[in-house]
Amino acid sequence: MLDWVTMTCSQHNCTWNRKLSGSFHLSEDVLQACIRSTQVLLNISKMSLWREAAEILLRVFNSLNNYSILHVAIAAAAILTSTKAGMYVYKRQRRQQLKLKMQARGQRSKTDIEELRAELKTLQINTAIPTWSITELHAAVQAGEVTATEVLRAYQAKALEVNDRTNAITDVIKSAVTRAAQLDQLPPEQRGPLHGIPISLKEACGLEGLDCTSGFGELIDIPLKTDSNLVKVLKSKGAVPFVRTNIPQGMRSFGCSNGIYGVTKNPHNQARAPGGSSGGEGAIIGGQGSIIGIGSDLGGSVRNPAHFCGIVSLRPTAGRLGNYGNFNASTSNGQTLVINTDGPMARDVAALVHVTRAVLGPSLWELEPHVAPIPFNEQMFSSTRPLHIGYYVSDNNTRPVPAVERAVLWAVSALRAQGHTVEKFDVKSYNLEAFCNFLFRALAADQGQGYDKLLQYDNSSEAMLGFYAFGTMSDWMRPYVAKSLERDDDNVQSASFAAGGIRTIAEWFQANLDLQEFQQKFVADWKQHKLDIMISPPWPSPANKIETIDKIVACGTYTAVYNVLNFPAGIVPVTKVTPKDVQNAIDPKVYPAKYKQEKILQADAQGSQGLPIAVQVAGLPYTEERVLRVMAELEAAAKIKVNQI
C-alpha cells in the first residue's frame, strides 16, 4: 500500500519534506494526492472488504496534520494485512457456502427421485413397455392400446432402475405426469407423431422452471423462463420430457461428473465412463431407461457417449436443427467459428429416424428462422442407389486399439456386401490435429473470462482446469508447457498449448480464412473421389475408465473434425470387444503404444471385454438422411441391439 501511495504521489510531482528530526512528514500536496488516490480506490473497489479498507485509509489521511510517514506506513501495513486475512476468511466462507448450496441441490435431486420411487410403488406398472421398439410403442399409443400415462410410468420406473447403477438423472420433471394426462384426453386425429413418447433431456437443455447448472454451483437456482425451441417443438409433436440427465462440469470433458450431481457411470461397466458431455443421456438410454433423448454436440458430445454406451446418435449440420434456448454457462459458447448444435440420441436407428423426421418441419422453422427450412428427405433416406463410400481407420493422431480397427474394417466389408463401392481415404495430408485445434482456440478466445466468476469459489474438474488453463495461460508460458507435454508424449495437447487461443480480431479473421480453406479442400477431395459417405472410428478405444478419461481429451479429434467441417455425423454400434481384442491391445507387438494417450488406451484395454464398439458415419452438410440410411444398413447387418450388449 505504501509503495502504491509513493508511486501515486510521484505521478503528481509531489515531494517528501525531511524534518531535522529525521522522520518523514507529508507535505500538503502529498497529503491531497493520497486522499484523491484513496478516493479512487474507494470508487473502483467492488468487494466490500477492499472498500472498508479504503474508507479506513481515507479517514487516516484526512486526520493527518503533522504525523510522520511512519505512522501512515504502520496504518497502511496494518490495513493491508488485515484485509488480506479478511479476504482469505471471506473466500473460505464463500467456498463453504457454495459447497453447501451444491450439496443441497444434489440432495434435492435425490429426494425427488426417492419421492417418485415411493409414488411408483403404489401403481401398477407395465414393465414390458420399455422393451418395445419405437415402431411398436408408436403404434400402441396411437391406437389407444396404452395411454401416455402408462408409458410414462413404465419409463419412469425403468429410468430409476438404471439410475441406481449409473447415477444419470439430475432432475425428475414433475410436470410430466400432468402433461401425459392431458395428452390422454386428445382424440386420435389430434395425436402428434411423438404422442406419448417419453423423452430424456441433457441438463443443458432449456426447460421452463428448471435451472441449467452445467455443473457449476454459481448457476444453481436460476430457473429458465421458457423452454428451448427444440423442447417446444418436441412438445408440440406430443413428446413427454420426463427426466434430465447429468453432464461434466462446463461440458468440457468426455467423462461425466461434477460437484453437484456426482459421477455418472457406464451402464455396461460401472468402472467405465459413459462419455461426454451428454454422458447422462448415453447412460440412461444405454440402460433402456429412455428410448429417445436430446443432447448437444460441440466436439463429439452426442457421439462419444453413444459409442461408449452402445446406442445411436446424430450430430446434425449446424443450421439444420438449431439449439436456441439452451442455457450457455460461459461466453465462450457464443463463439461462431465452430457451432454447437442439439442432436438426438436413441436406442436404435429407427427411433433416431422417428424423432428426426418429427421435428424437421414448420414448427421448428417458425421458432428458428435461421434454421434451414429443409424437411426430412424421405427419398434420400429410402433410396437403394449404391453409394460411393470412403473410410479411414486412423486419423494419424492416436492409433485406435485393435477392437476399433476391426469394427471399421467390418463395416467396410458389410457395406461392400450390400453393393456399395468402398475405398480407403487418405487423411494424412490434412493434419487433422491442427484443424481440430480450431475448436480449442475458438473456445479459449475469451481467455477464460467466461469461467472466471463460475470458478472463483468452485472446485474445478481435471478437464475443466486444463481447459481453463489453456485459455488463461500467458503467452510466454505456452512454449514451456508445450515442451513439457511433448516430453510426456502428449503430442496433440502439446500442439494445442503451443498454438494458444485466438487473441485478437485479426487472428479471429485469419482463423476463419484458414478454416474455410480447410473445409473447401476437404470437400473438393471428397467430390473428386465422388464420395457419398465416410466411415471412421468415433474414438480410438471402447469406453475408458472413469479415472483416466480426462487424461485423454486429445482422442476427441476423431469426432471434432466433423464439428470443424460442419458435416452431419452419426454413431451406430456394430460389435463388442472380444477376448482376442483385449489380447491384441495389450500386446506391444500388435499395438505398439507410442504416445501418452495410446499407453492409457492400452492399459484401459484390460477388463474391456464385452463393451460396445461403434463406427462413425459422416456425410456432406444437410445429408442427414443419407447418414441415417447407412447407419440403418450397418445396424441391420450387425444385428446388434443395446439390450444384447
UniProtKB/TrEMBL annotation:
Keyword Transcription set for record: no
Name of the protein described by the UniProt record: Amidase domain-containing protein
Q: Kindly give the PROSITE patterns that the UniProt entry links to this protein.
A: AMIDASES (PS00571)
Instruction: Name the species this protein comes from.
Output: Elysia crispata (lettuce slug)
| Sequence similarity | Belongs to the amidase family.
Q: Which PANTHER family match?
A: FATTY ACID AMIDE HYDROLASE (PTHR45847:SF6)
Any idea where the Amidase domain is? 150-628
Keyword Transmembrane helix present in the record's keywords: the answer is yes
Q: Which UniProt keywords are present, listed alphabetically?
A: Hydrolase, Membrane, Transmembrane, Transmembrane helix
Q: Which residue ranges run through the membrane?
A: 69-90
Query: What is a biological process (GO) this protein takes part in?
Result: fatty acid catabolic process
Provide the GO MF annotations for this entry.
amidase activity; fatty acid amide hydrolase activity
